[in-house]
Amino acid sequence: MFITRLISGIVLVAIALLVNHVGGPLLLLTMLAISLIGMFELFRAVKIREKGTNSLTTAAYAGAVLWYVAVWLGHVYGERFDHFYVSFLAAGLIILLFVYVFTYPKYHADQVMAAFFGIVYVAVCLSFIYQTRELPDGRWHVWLILLCSWGCDTSAYCVGRLFGRHKMAPVLSPKKSVEGAVGGVIGAALFGGIYGACIRGKVSADINVVLVYIVVCAIGALISMVGDLAASAIKRNMEIKDYGHLIPGHGGILDRFDSVIITAPIIYFLCSVLRF
């Protein structure tokens, strides 16, 4: 099992290196594909669909595509298009409502709300990986999303196994400990600092890259744990072990990107506000 997870992890990192290096449309389309797969897993988990697709999930996928079109247009036209983002998201909601109304009573209101949640939770949040990449020096900043997510996860697991005594969320995730959480934040901050030291001089902004990356990764690690627990909560509510089996040893897209989903918008926000 460990070897399978390790090999899958290496393959994922290799793909991430390639796609991030190229950036542009390749990264945008990759994130769209990952988003659609993640939404597919979520809709199956919350039982909007059992097999194949239906009109409601198809409408949700269309909403996700519309959002990515908005993101691309925002990149092409810059500030002139900024105020249209919400309009495209609203268009996705309107499509869902069309399906809800004209197929009534085929779908319940909670299914429609879950479908819209899927657009925002998966597609919108993951799109911030691409949006971070498109910031000044974004090719370097985008790795902070993975460092504080996967770095926190790995560090928390190791520290928790060695020193974990106090349960952090005993009902939701009995194996996670307070000690592991602290170790996860410290580990992510260390990863960020080491990464900052490695790329010092490549970031054009006049900042202390090491210090800033330490702080950003520490904040991102705190948020990533919420994303991890939120995904676990959904699985427990739906009484499933994994969202899928696409990634050997890891599960589905949502099993591997559960913390990244929540971390990506935060890192984008921090990079934008701090202007580095």
Basic shape: globular
Low-confidence stretches at least 5 residues in length (pLDDT < 50)?
none
Distance between the termini: 40 Å
Widest sheet: strand order?
A: 1-2
The chain-level mean pLDDT equals 88
Number of helices: 10
Number of domains: 2
Largest sheet: 2 strands, antiparallel
Q: H/E order of the elements?
A: HHHHHHHEEHHH
Oligomer: single chain
- The value of Rg in angstroms is 19 Å
What share of residues are in beta strands? under 5%
Helix content: over 70%
Structural class: mainly alpha
Total strands: 2
SSE inventory with pairings:
Elements: H1 2-22, H2 24-45, H3 55-77, H4 85-102, H5 109-133, H6 138-141, H7 143-163, E1 167-169, E2 173-177, H8 178-199, H9 209-238, H10 253-274
Brief sketch in words of this structure:
The protein is mostly helical. It is built from ten helices and two strands, in the order H-H-H-H-H-H-H-E-E-H-H-H. Its EC number is 2.7.7.41.
What would your notes on this structure say?
- By secondary structure, the protein is an all-alpha fold.
- It has two domains: 21-133; 136-275, no CATH class.
- Helix content is 75%, strand content 3%.
- It has ten helices and two strands.
- The protein has helices spanning 2-22, 24-45, 55-77, 85-102, 109-133, 138-141, 143-163, 178-199, 209-238, 253-274, and strands at residues 167-169, 173-177.
- Strands 1-2 form a two-stranded antiparallel ribbon.
- Strand 1 and strand 2 (173-177) form a beta hairpin.
- The radius of gyration is 19 Å and the shape is globular.
- The relative contact order is 0.13.
- The mean pLDDT is 88.
